Amino acid sequence: xxxxxxxxxxxxxxxxxxxxxxxxxxxxxxxxxxxxxxxxxxxxxxxxxxxxxxxxxxxxxxxxxxxxxxxxxxxxxxxxxxxxxxxxxxxxxxxxxxxxxxxxxxxxxxxxxxxxxxxxxxxxxxxxxxxxxxxxxxxxxxxxxxxxxxxxxxxxxxxxxxxxxxxxxxxxxxxxxxxxxxxxxxxxxxxxxxxxxxxxxxxxxxxxxxxxxxxxxxxxxxxxxxxxxxxxxxxxxxxxxxxxxxxxxxxxxxxxxxxxxxxxxxxxxxxxxx
Length: 274
Prior knowledge:
Elements: E1 5-13, E2 16-21, E3 24-30, H1 32-42, E4 47-51, H2 59-72, E5 77-80, H3 86-95, E6 99-102, H4 104-108, H5 111-120, E7 125-135, E8 142-143, E9 149-150, E10 160-165, E11 170-175, H6 176-186, E12 190-195, H7 207-216, E13 221-224, H8 230-238, E14 244-247, H9 249-252, H10 258-267
Parallel strand pairs: 1-4, 1-14, 4-5, 5-6, 6-7, 7-12, 12-13, 13-14
Antiparallel strand pairs: 1-2, 2-3, 7-10, 8-9, 10-11
């Protein structure tokens, strides 16, 4: 059985790590290279950098962050934010990134997924999906302790999530589950799935969203958005069937350490690398 991965996420703005709630109200959370080094030393399996400003004038900033990180961190790391061409992918990979993550460009130009996979290999191409709930189930729907969805009332009503782009600001009308299947068919090697409704809340991951996407694709799914305690990581990996969990606030502000989370997961029977 493949080990489940713990991945800290560093949202980078103007060369600094920031964190907000529901994609807004950003606060400074430190130097990205220092943070990445600390997480690697603690046993993180990978690191994700997301350049949330993603403007032309800031692109060199993230390239320098990548170069500096590659000199001190020896675990895989992914970089995303504003990537729109094969050349930008190439620049990041040459600077030391192991993978690139695309979201808006993938939606607006799906062929970029295929071209990137053909040029650099599927293992380098991560498609980030920012998902927002647009059609909820009845309030009396919940998960059982076995991770099974329990329903009562209208059995025909189901949840629907929509893909958003431009940092969660633009609705696309695209169904998340259908999009997940399509990006896999185009050659994506991994999906970074973020619940916009849960992002930064520390109330727990959107387990049904993760479970639904994981059941539709054969490539790894990284669960993102909502981690607040150790139990949330466990639930995303077991109930949600995610291959990895990504978190920011709980690690940035010292609420939980990487080492602590891995020891907890191992005690609960989850296979992790320690």
